[in-house]
Amino acid sequence: MSVTMTVNGTTITRSVEPRTLLVHFLRDEAGLTGTHVGCDTSQCGACTVLLNGDAVKSCTVLAVQANGAEVVTIEGLEQEVLHPVQQGFWEKHGLQCGFCTPGAMLTASYLLSTNPHPSETDIRDALDGLLCRCTGYETIVRSVQRAQEIMDERQTEERETKIG
Amino acid sequence: MADVIGSALKRHEDVRLIRGKGQYTDDIKLPGMLYAGIVRSPHAHARLVKVDVSRALKMPGVVAAFTGADLKDEVGFIPTAWIPPDSDMKMPPHPALAVDMVRYQGDGVAVVIAQTPAQARDGVDAVEVEYESLPAVTNPFAAAQEGAPLVHEDIAGNVAFHWKVGGDVEEIFNRAEVVVRQEFRQQRLVPNAMEPRSAVAQWNPATEELTLWATTQNPHIHRLLMSGILGIPEHKLRVVAIDVGGAFGSKISCYPDEIIVSWAARRLNRPVKWTETRTENFTVTSHGRDHVQEVALAGTKDGHIEAIRVKTYANLGAYLSTAAPGVPTILFGLIVNGAYAIPEASAEVYGMLTHTTPVDAYRGAGRPEATFLVERMVDLYAHAINKDPLEVRNINLIPAEAFPYTNPFGLQYDSGNYQGALAKALEIVDYAAFRREQENLRQQGKYIGIGFSTYVEMCGLGPSEVAGAVGFQGGLWESATVRVHPTGKVTVFTGASPHGQGEETTFAQIVAQELGVPPEDIEVVHGDTSKIAMGWGTYGSRTTVVGGAAIHLADQKVIAKARKIAAHKLEVGEDDVEFEQGIFSVKGLPARAVTFQEAALDAYLAWSLPAGMEPALEGTAFYNPENFTYPFGTHIAIVSVDPDTGDVELMRYVAVDDVGVVINPMLVEGQIHGGLVQGIGQALYEGVEYDTNGQLMTGSFLDYAMPKARFFPKFETAHTTTPSPHNPLGVKGVGETGAIASTPAVVNAVMDALAPFGIQDLPMPLTPRKVWQAIASKGGHMHVHDAI
């Protein structure tokens, strides 16, 4: 079957088997190996991507279901400078082995896009679909909090630049 | 330049990982690559009647299919690398693919190789296997009973080894004022690194070299074992682990799958990849813990512990995994006295074969099993003599002036101040106030509890002479090469193989501090046998302790040579040159100076070197530690238990750890947090269950409770610093402390909360159902009683 989608701003068309999952389309057809497969029961969240702006587990979406959609993967977060979530994870040690990290960062970016000032409980609840075996989660929470600060700082800078 | 050692430098490895540019094994795609799928036994114990791959071979895209019969004459058995001395160990043959019997659910019986992963999986489904199912045994104590099904016909009683250590403690137990006995079930856990295991093999027919990219913690050990199994000489084998997505011990072992793809890549002359599913990870990647322990403690009425005696049935699974026999013996038995000055101790271990997934190291490996029992016994003893558990700890903790302290098994604890760590923890938790609040809440029908774990562990594996004496079939030293380039940039080659711990950063910090080179000018290379001469890998909290010390020694060689070059250039004697922050200068004349980078360039140009000196600038060192290191600390858990539901809430968790000198405090905290969640996971959530047929009932994230973010409060961490006296950097290792210390702290806290119900012990994990049933069986809580 022919599938066309926009991944990180680039339109890709491929012929795939109907059973192809979005995560395999991204890894094998689009060559974007930043999205990881950590389980086969939709629990771990390592494969989380943004599908038309919503965080989805790409192992639970068929590639054909994403036909015509806009997909953002970890490779698409950075725009000239690191995305605030990337910067936050780097500064606050939100990752160790890095395997669940792409899913964690896209989950975090989705959270902050829908709830710009989450409480700690909000953040921990939002991470419920993510399994991380390295960090103990607390540094991920701090990373998301730091990302939120960076977003606020950048917005303030933008406003000041406009006024200036 | 400010001190780099001790600073919370952001991680070098994150630059690629936060961009999705990590290179994990499953990310590798080679031209012409094929994909393997493995047919696995659904039975825990069965005779293989027929394995027929003919249908699979007709499936679209299937290139080849092989069975145990195809491999058996070309591939050797997979050996264990640990043979405990004086234990009469029997090593059962472990073929990469089963030949006539399967011995655990997941044992491989055939491999199908196809053009795509999906076609390989379809091919696996098309293989016809006929099994004759046989009775299975999964519990290590049950396996030791007469009439238990045998895992290997020629290993009587399923006993792979019987190991004893320590003195005769019977006399003490016979005359002791107080004896406390308890059985503990140290339940089986699944390490569950988030990255499933993967292997990619490529054969080069021109050079007759095999390259294996694999998810391993120790590529050189893999190479060593594989050369024997595959009959490919070591110098024709290359094992590479670039980015590895967590391991926790589960990627130490040399696995059948890695052998199968290596053999198949040569046979087919095509690259072959295999990546496990999470389901396979649950069934075939090594598990951890799984002891049945009978423990007894003898003491006086006034709180002095006199002896501890441990008898353990340790489950090893169906075959002996790479490090398996060392885990419940050396890494467990030798430290069952914990942080206490217990004069006499003995440990007896039965290494049991069962129809289960092989058991190997899992974060802490042996030391959590030892720490749990001693920390729990101290609380049970305190209860028996009607004393506060804190008071009993104060009486029995090894005093600071007793270091170096020789424990009853002859281990020499290098340094410590256990009272100091405890005091620091008690600055954070007001114990007296807690007890008052606890009493008040009990009056209101609310139950909170506090639990201590004043632990010590042995790590930084280790002295190679000791490794040999305790039966490890390798060395435990580490190698380092510090290569300074003509421009003064530095490449560091380490034999350690970090996979999330962050040594690309901490090792650069050591070199930056010692050579005075900016950290961004330093690249750390690891995990490739073609680049690193030899190394023993990353496990046992050894990487910074042993690998870091090797780097320190290599740095000293570099500095010594550069100093000679600088002295020559400055036209003074070597002794007149001092080196600080990357600059060689004449003593008392700081303006007469040569930078480290200038000395490096001179070394390579070699236009004017001191007489007889060889060009270039690099240092290679091999560090063989003289002892283990002994991190310690005090952990305190505070919980509340809801008697209506049995739900345990972790309210506070305080961890005071002394891991010696800290290279990067941010990374040390990260290691402690991660360990805590795994240790608390064991106490409250995680546990493997098999049914009576040996079926794994907890074989997915749906059935096996992995800790999640919302289960935890903010952790309160603090440190004391007692450098290791024998380690050149003073470091002690931090990778496992959290997992070792936290499990008993939490269980002690829950038992403290349940004390009013007369409950003193419950088997882990302390699930709501188990806790609620225990409360109910003791007459229950008033509300529960009313409801019934």
From TrEMBL, chain B:
UniProt entry tagged with the keyword Magnesium: no
SMART domains hit by this protein: Ald_Xan_dh_C (SM01008)
Pfam families: Ald_Xan_dh_C, MoCoBD_1, MoCoBD_2
Official protein name in the record: Carbon monoxide dehydrogenase
Organism the protein comes from: Sulfobacillus thermotolerans
Lineage of producing organism: Bacteria, Bacillati, Bacillota, Clostridia, Eubacteriales
Keyword Oxidoreductase: yes
PANTHER family: ALDEHYDE OXIDASE 1-RELATED, XANTHINE DEHYDROGENASE
Domain Aldehyde oxidase/xanthine dehydrogenase a/b hammerhead stretches: 19-135
Entry keywords, A to Z: Molybdenum, Oxidoreductase
UniProt xrefs under InterPro entries: Ald_Oxase/Xan_DH_a/b, Ald_Oxase/Xan_DH_a/b_sf, Ald_Oxase/xanthine_DH-like, AldOxase/xan_DH_MoCoBD1, AldOxase/xan_DH_MoCoBD2, AldOxase/xan_DH_Mopterin-bd_sf
